Amino acid sequence: MITQLSIRGLAIIEELHIEFSPQLNVITGETGAGKSILIKALHFLLGAKADPDVIRRGFPRAHVSASFLLPKTHGCVEVLDAHGIWHDDQDLTELIIRREIAQKGRSQAWVNDQPITLSLLKELGATLIDIYGQHENHRMLDPHTHLDYIDEFVGDQGLRNKVQAAMQQAHQILQDLRKRLEQYQTRRREQDYLQFRFDELARFGPSLEDYERTIKLCEESSVVLSQQKVFDQAQRICDEGYNGRALTSALQELQRLLEVPAEKLQDASLQASLAQLNELSTVLDELSYGIGRAVSRHSLDEEEIEELQGRLAGYQSLLRKHSVRTVEEIMTEYERLETELSFVQQGPEAMAEALDKLKKLLNEADEYAHKLSAARKEAAQRAVQAVVSELHDLNMKGARIDFDFQEVQNTIPDLDIADIDAALVDDWQHCASILTETSKLGRERGQFLLSANPGEGLKPLAKVASGGEISRIMLGFKKALAMGANTCVMVFDEIDTGISGHTAHIVGKKLKELSTTFQVICISHLPQVAAYGDAHFLVQKAQKGESTESQILRLNRKASEEEIARLLSGDQVTNSSLTHARQLIKAARDRVAQ
User: Global pTM?
Assistant: First the structure.
């Protein structure tokens, strides 16, 4: 049960502290006094989406906290243990949940002073409090939700989850299979072109290392070639520098011409010139030899140069063809083409494996769905009987309810798999038949039918039920499901909408009966319901300076009688209304004692 609830800085609540009774807590107050804010506070505490707009003006943050006492066997304790959240190990475990939201929208939550995630807070909240508000009336009128109510009566609660999990996986596999098939068919149409481009790259064998080596060698060969031209020209000058004759040849000829005159004339100057000619001839020989050696050392194979330049031109051609700027991009394209061709080659086998996995999952889902269908039909009978019994107690004596099951019929687009492998067609048809007959909720859908009065035929609930009847039907469901509920606190926000008089007494008694098993918190506007409360709270507005504040007071016996009298007669409490209020309270106690 929830023992205490504290609210600070939320909407029109400045600060509020409530201590609840372990049984039936009734909350009354004028419209707009702030009763619904208590429901919002509980939703916020249990993980509902929070908006900074709920923060009261002048407060940096809104804060809600609650203390619970739970038996150590309660499901919430199992969740705490599973997530390593500390708690005492007494027969009654105390649990303190806090949550706050700051002006910037940041929300934080704690359990027993340990920070927790929002998802864990929601998981805990689902085991602690069941809140029934006015939106449940609208939900009850939606036929798409009716199967949920039947499933609450199913003994094996895991069956629906198993069907849902298997079908969700199956639909994901089917979605992936359709996408893969579409990609396969597209790539297969382009296979020849993809293969041509891949083969071209494969033959060339591009790599970053090879490209860098080719660039380097081409640059080096360019330098060597330019130097080789210089050497060749120098060699040519040496070899062909005098009328097409070598320079050394001209020097030798000049030397022969001057040798005879030099000997006969005994001319020292001429002898010196001959010596210089001889020395110069030697130097020219050495120069020619040196140039020749340099040429031989730095000479290049023209075929090798042409091959290097051709490979560089090949890289440049690939860059242009693939509209890229770098060799890395060419390698990426090469890998992409290889992947796509591999996708085409391995496609049939991969799709066969996916279809086999789909078939196994759907067979599993189908098995669970058949079990769920049988359980639902049996549960529907029990649910109808239990709710009709409760409705008769709730002053709907002639009411009849039934549940109309309808088979699921889905439209499944065909999977064009025959061209891949004809042997797969039978497997696909088997899968399609299950997909056609099964949804994520099972093999059936349905809705409640109601006959509110004797002699009337059964019709869809949404078409024949009044607001008061819907409220009683919902209370009937809650009462019928009470023994199997996982929560420890049940909150009803104006469950008595659309009813009055004797029926209101019955609703009050039903809520009181529920409070023997669960702690019940009920927001009501009916004095007949308030009379059954073990604790009576009054919500009222108060003017505080220039702002309005919502307050809640736990009423003593006398104040409770006066509030019930006010509900009976309006704002003015009279002696007769007080007497009537005391009679209501006594009548409520007498009915409970019966």
Answer: 0.62
